[in-house]
Predict the structure of MFS transporter.
Amino acid sequence: MAIITERPAWRDTLISLRIRNYRLFTFSNMLSMTGTWMQRIAQDWLVLELSGSVAAVGITVAMQFAPMLLFGLFGGVFVDRHSRRAILIGTQIALFLFACLLAALTLTGVVEVWHVYVIAFLVGSVTVLDNPARQVFVNELVGPANLHNAISINSSVFQLGGLVGPAVSGVLLVAVGAGWSFAINAVSCLFVVAALLMLKVDELHPMQQALRAKGQLREGLRYVASKPAILWTIIMIAVLSLFTFSMPVLLAAFANDVFVVGASGYGLFNSLLAVGAFTGAIASTRRRGIRLRTVIISAGVFGLLQALAGFMTNQLFFSAVLIGVGFANLLFITGANSLVQISSNTTVRGRVMSVYVLVLLGGQAIGGPLMGFIVETWGAHVGMAISGLVPVFAASVIGVILARQGRLRLRLHLLRAPRFVSIEPHPGSTGTAARTQLVTSRTPG
């Protein structure tokens, strides 16, 4: 796999968009992500209005992510065996139908909480195939040389949708209710289908599809366990999924109970989070490469900022910290995604990414209700603080374990710039393999 060894020129920050297929897919994806965020915000607030319970919002999150927890690994096997483009066309049509159903129920005034639960579960079931297929399909659109840049742009698009979607949804919630957010999301799915049909197939970078064989699921799991860069990244993601990524639950509690700003404030908080995340995603396109230590450190910084938000009692300061949380979140998530993809062989990448997505989304199926319980029992401030401090502790433990395995030490250089802190081997240490485990993983295996 081609490796970028020098920081790209500013003119090449969005180099992947020069590829027609990727550009077409990305612009349609931008509309789709805006619609997805609109539905996500409207759905969570609708449940809060219907039930009056933050825990019910956590259950909604659990219903949407539970299918990934239950069936995610099998989704990866399916993606490795079949055309990713065909899979995405099918999943987008299914998401269109579910959004139409939720819009119809809401606009006619007959929607109940259990309706939202069921549709959230169905949407999550489609995600079992859609998410790993989408992750792997990026490689087919741009090729390996531009993969890291394309992943960063994808994250930028997702967060741009997170910037626009919550703001628009918040306005619609106040003006006309949740139903129209669902309807707009349904239409946005059709743009993705149209873009996929318009791609020039002969310009794709086809990846080898795995032949049907016994033991492919076990093979994928063994592969993940054998690659330290993948394994430790996924462990870190598991911790964050359980405690930190349940922001809909936490922000709903802050908007409803702490600052009493209603649906519009909830949308604003999500938009501020997306402002920081969009900035972080753009910044990540400037990376020369990605290292395991960078992923672990960024996870710790991410958790620290989120814990800090839990101690904010002033809305202005809370809002400012949310921007930092979003920035750190995206530096972590783009780094983790890139590291896992670049470190995996193309023939098992669908299964590897299904493990990644299973942990990322499936963990939230448990984390949503868990954080909902913590918030309802001890309050929003305690919930937010716990959601940040746990990953800080986990990142510290993982860092210590890897440093000992690699016989590394942290050194301060008070009189030397630009690096005042560095991670170096102990004098006389020959732990090259273990050190590589912590420091870098830029080549596939």
Observations:
- Strands lie at 408-412, 421-425.
